[in-house]
Amino acid sequence: MSDSSDKKAPEDLCHCLQQARRVVVLTGAGVSAESGIPTFREAQTGLWARFDPMTLASPEGFDRDPALVWRWYQWRRQLVAEAQPNAGHLALARLERLVNEFVVITQNVDGLHQQAGSSKVLELHGNIGRTICSETRQLIPDDWLRDQSAEPPPSPHHPQGLARPDVVWFGEMLNEVVLDAAMRSSAECDVMIVAGTAGVVQPAASLPAVAREAGAKIVDVNPDAGDISRMADWHLKGCSGTWLPRLVDCFELDSNNRECG
Ligand code: OAD
User: Fold this and answer.
1) Which ligand 1 atom sits closest to the C-alpha of 168?
2) Of the residues 58, 110, 197, which should be mutated to test ligand 1's pocket, given the most ligand atoms within 8 Å of the CB?
């Protein structure tokens, strides 16, 4: 994997970031890869290379075999519970304090942005740490789940309901309020930093185009090239744990200058 570890952010990019007042960061599974959480689509290591998404991440799969789906998510929850935010997450938490209008839009369900200290996070695909009723979608408290031994536990909210993770499965709609907010921020930002996403799952994949059409500059951080890096103004080839801190350094440079000036 090429990581450009000796490179600084290009000067024109750094200048552009210093001018930006409204910044959106769109993240995907690659941002959590350096925390030990597997991505989805990478050959060999991606979850979808080893598991069938329609069996494990669709309402039909859950109807067919709820125990299998519940256990798979319990395994993923364990991976997330053992993970720590990495340098990329921490850099974005730092960035929130440097830019007035700032939001992280994430496709990740691991909560690592919040754990790193980010408070402005739009979770497009939900959060694996929460559990909801399969019938009513009401939250099921952890206290209640602790006393249950069935896999999955029954829901306290509905006689036919089962506990399921609060994540968006294939074929399901995203939360409308969260998606609207993500669309609005994308259409209003000066710069969108995209990091660690293959950019193939809609509607998240179309947010960089929304930003670009509204006049924003796009930066893509990814070791591999894809549709987003091809439309981006800058493609920083390498890991988010390396590049995001460097990008945030550009903003910090600016705020130091302002303090001195
Ligand atoms: P993918 O697994 O499709 O893509 C991960 C991307 O991260 C790839 O482009 C990798 O090249 C890149 N990558 C890997 N390591 C990286 C690193 N250290 N730094 C930066 N980039 C790195 O994951 P997503 O695009 O997030 O949806 O997938 C989108 C959605 O598809 C997920 O949210 C999930 C999945 O099905 C649901 O579960 C609903």
Assistant:
1) 39
2) 197
Only one residue has tokens 């754990």, namely: 115
d(CA 70, CA 192): 35
Check 15, 125, 157, 235 and give the catalytic one: 125
CA distances for 82 relative to 113, 125, 145, angstroms: 15, 21, 20
Asked if 89 is an active-site residue, the reply is: no
CA-nearest residue for atom 31, ligand 1, is: 201
Look at ligand 1, atom 29, and give the residue with the nearest C-alpha: 201
CB 3 within 8 A of CB 223: yes
Helix ranges restricted to H, 29-153: 30-33, 47-50, 53-56, 59-64, 66-82, 87-96, 112-116, 142-146
């024109």: which residue's tokens? 12
Q: What is the pLDDT of residues 26-76, one digit of tens each?
A: 999 999 999 999 999 987 889 999 999 999 999 999 999 999 999 999 999
